[in-house]
Structure formats: structure tokens, C-alpha cells
Design a protein that fits this description.
The chain is α/β, with parallel strands linked by helices. The protein has helices at about 50-55, 80-85, 105-115, 120-130, 145-160, 175-190, 205-210; strands spanning about 10-15, 25-30, 35-40, 65-70, 70, 90, 165-170, 195-200, 215-220, 220-225. It is globular, with a radius of gyration of 18 Å.
Length: about 240
């Protein structure tokens, strides 16, 4: 008998608001599974970043239930929270790079936290930096990079551990179309290996080109669209 596939993320009637009490997200119910790929769309200010923060457990729902990896996150300890976050790769809009670390060390940091050897983490960091076109930037510091370069460093750091969930908030906003397509190919490869990928974007061309499932936030609610999963050659 085939084992029933369990969702990695469950939102059950979730609402979220900030201190002013005005709802940003309303009554959201959603199931996200491993090896799935979703574009998160909506106008500026619709709540895309707020939903990403919920999924990263940076904030908690104002009401409703959020389960990640089968656990209700409202009751987990700080130790469990950090363990969960190790399984989630995040690309923030403001990059969150550490200015006192080189590009190589920024990207390798998640592997260092995970206890990998220096040799192994440096090898993997160099490999992924080569892939995103930053093979000549290993020893530079974030303050010397352009916005697009910082974005690629942040993406490389987010994917280096092959997380179970990847959250990317406007990951192609500061790069040219060629690099953007390469990054989408990287995300696609992770999705094929089993990662649940959620890419928040306002770039309609990618949504229309790649035809992944689309989640649109409109007036605080989620509208679930559908899309085909392109074959590897189409990315």
C-alpha cells in the first residue's frame, strides 16, 4: 500500500495582522507538498512578504493554525524552531548578508552551523558561487558588491544545504534576464530533488513563461491557480 504523501506546510484558516490590527492575511487555508513549485503573486503590499515571514516562522499567525513538517508551530520551543529553520532556505529582499564575512564564508555559513568540515563547505560554496556567476568574488566582502551580486550570494547561501522548503522573496529583482533564467533553473533543479519551492514575484514574464502553480494574494486572501510543470529542457 502506497504511503500517503504528507504536506510540509499546512495553513488552516490563518489570519495575520500587525500591531495596528488591520488584517494583512485573511482566512488562508493551504496545503504545500514536497517537490512542489509555487509562484506567489499579488500587487505591492498585498501580503506576499508577510506570508513568507509566517512560513519562515519569523512571525506567528494572529489566529488559525500553521503546521510545518507536521508540527503546530505555535507550541514549539526555541531549540525546535532553530532546527526547523535549518530545513528552510530563505532569500530575503534585504539579503541579510554578514558584512564581516567574505562572500565565500557567507555562503558556507549554513554548512558551518551544520557541522560540515572546512574542506567540504568551501568546496560546495565555491561550486554554487560558480553556478550563479560569482566565481571571481570568493574573497570579496558584501559591501563591495552590487545589489544583483548580493542577491546571488543570498540565493547561493539559501540553497547550499538543499533545504526541504525554499522561500525566495523577489529573487530576480536585481539581476538581468540571463542570470534570472539561470536562477530559475537552479530553483527548478531543487524542486525536482524534492524541495518545496515558493517564489514571491511581481515579474509576470516568469510566471507566464514557466507555468508553475500560482498563488495570488488578493485582498488578503489566497487565490489558487494552476499550471503545468515544465520538463527540464524548457528551463
Amino acid at each position: 500500500m502506497q504511503k500517503k504523501e504528507e504536506p510540509v506546510v499546512v495553513l488552516d484558516n490563518v489570519m495575520f495582522h500587525y500591531e495596528d490590527g488591520v488584517p494583512v492575511l485573511r482566512n488562508i487555508s493551504l496545503f504545500l507538498y514536497e517537490k512542489s513549485f509555487h509562484f506567489l503573486t499579488g500587487v505591492s503590499g498585498a501580503g506576499k512578504t508577510s506570508l513568507m515571514r509566517l512560513l519562515y516562522m519569523g512571525v506567528k499567525p494572529s489566529s488559525g493554525k500553521l503546521k510545518i513538517f507536521g508540527r503546530d508551530v505555535s507550541g514549539i520551543s526555541m531549540e525546535e524552531l532553530w532546527e526547523f529553520r535549518r530545513r528552510i532556505g530563505v532569500v530575503f529582499q534585504d539579503f541579510n548578508l554578514l558584512s564581516h564575512l567574505t562572500v565565500l564564508d557567507n555562503v558556507a555559513l549554513p554548512l558551518k552551523v551544520a557541522g560540515e568540515s572546512i574542506k567540504r563547505r568551501e568546496h560546495q560554496a565555491k561550486e554554487i558561487l560558480d553556478w550563479v556567476g560569482l566565481g571571481n568574488c570568493f574573497n570579496l566582502y558584501p559591501d563591495s558588491l552590487s545589489g544583483g551580486q548580493k542577491q546571488r550570494v543570498a540565493i547561493a547561501r539559501a540553497v547550499i544545504t538543499r533545504p526541504d522548503i525554499l522561500l525566495a522573496d523577489e529573487p530576480t529583482g536585481n539581476v538581468d534576464e540571463n542570470i534570472a533564467n539561470k536562477l530559475m533553473s537552479l530553483f527548478y533543479g531543487m524542486h525536482k530533488m524534492g524541495t518545496c519551492v515558493i517564489v514571491a514575484t511581481h515579474y509576470r514574464q516568469f510566471v507566464d513563461t514557466f507555468h508553475y502553480n500560482e498563488l495570488t494574494i488578493d485582498n488578503g486572501c489566497i487565490i489558487v491557480g494552476s499550471g503545468r510543470h515544465p520538463e527540464k529542457g524548457s528551463t
